[in-house]
User: Which sequence fits this backbone?
């Protein structure tokens, strides 16, 4: 990130999404099928970006996002929340923080190759 750049500005640069359009209705969180596994709801991630809360870079929610686009479809303001989640992942990766250390993954011989490739591309820089 640039020195004087806010998270919202960087997210907009990467994703093309203006997070300030969000008025926290919660529809993205209400329709997300994976919120039980998230530490923060999608609407909370958006709010953290709006508030320039750097703790969002340590959140697990962007990594849990399955990019099913339910949040995007339901957003009354037309925000592509899945793109925002991807932007947060990219900012985190560019800061040198990987969500998964592939050397620590136990016995990958039983996993389908596409799962290994998909996970390593999504969660590593």
Assistant:
């Amino acid at each position: 990130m640039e020195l004087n750049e806010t998270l919202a500005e960087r997210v907009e640069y990467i994703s093309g999404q203006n997070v300030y359009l969000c008025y926290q209705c919660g529809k993205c969180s209400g329709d997300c099928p994976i919120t039980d596994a998230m530490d923060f709801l999608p609407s909370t991630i958006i709010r953290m970006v709006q508030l320039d809360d750097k703790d969002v870079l340590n959140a697990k929610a962007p990594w849990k996002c399955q990019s099913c686009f339910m949040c995007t479809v339901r957003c009354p303001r037309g925000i592509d929340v899945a793109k925002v989640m991807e932007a947060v992942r990219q900012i985190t990766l560019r800061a040198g923080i990987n969500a998964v250390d592939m050397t620590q993954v136990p016995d990958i011989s039983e996993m389908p190759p596409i799962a290994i490739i998909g996970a390593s591309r999504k969660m590593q820089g």
In short: The CA atoms of residues 7 and 54 lie 8 Å apart. Residues 7-94 form a domain with the Fumarate Reductase Iron-sulfur Protein; Chain B, domain 2 fold (CATH 1.10.1060.10). The longest helix spans residues 81-94. The helical segments are 7-15, 27-31, 42-50, 61-64, 70-74, 81-94, 113-123.
